[in-house]
Amino acid sequence: MERLEYGNTGLEISRLCFGVGHLNNVCASYAEGGDLLREAFDRGITFWDTAEGYGSQPHLGSALKGIKRSQVVIQTKTGAQDYDGAHKSIQRSLREMETDYIDVLLLHGVSSPEDLASREGALSAFLDAKSEGIIRVIGCSTHIFTGPVMDAVIDHPEIQVILATANKEGRMLEGGPLDRHLEYLQRAYDLGKGLSIMKVIAAGDIPQSELEDWIRWGFDLEIAHAINLGMCNRSEIDFDVRIARGHARQRLHRVA
Which domains, and CATH codes, for the chain? Predict the structure, then answer.
């Protein structure tokens, strides 16, 4: 499994990221989800993505009972806008995941420059938590492509990581064409931002026979440090790991 630096964050991740948002729908217990995450870890997947709003953070807490915390990178998200809300969200995430720090915390679903500006209170809470060693890296997720919102998140000095929609046909990408969107993602990459892509298989709304081609497109996108794929069972882990192991980026990760 390819491992690399997550932009200029100082974190080392597996390029295949386990998106755990669906585990509540398929696992009878948090322990079952934890077992699945540990199996993925044994296959080389050391980067896990979740969110407070998914309700799946406790699965990670269960998984961490059998894994040394420093061996995995956890990325989670909050939709909180103000300081108090973000502080409570951080404490809830720590409690649910049974950890004393969060590797990457994202503002969840930034939709416009105005939306980003409205979350300055939350960012202040992030920064305070970072100064205390509770958060290591700050970022945001966005499903939107428009020049203004991409400029806003790319140029924000505190945002080190961006999780963005990208797939081979530009599906689920709001506000602009895929080729222009990729130009913005290239700029973020060139600035040293950690860059993850999601909706790589358009939330599964494609024929089973085409899944591998869509996933391979994600791994072929060399500016993407991580390809975030939701996995619900062992066969999906096997499928995604096989593809991931067959791809290694030709370029080296960016070095400051």
Answer: 3-245 (3.20.20.100)
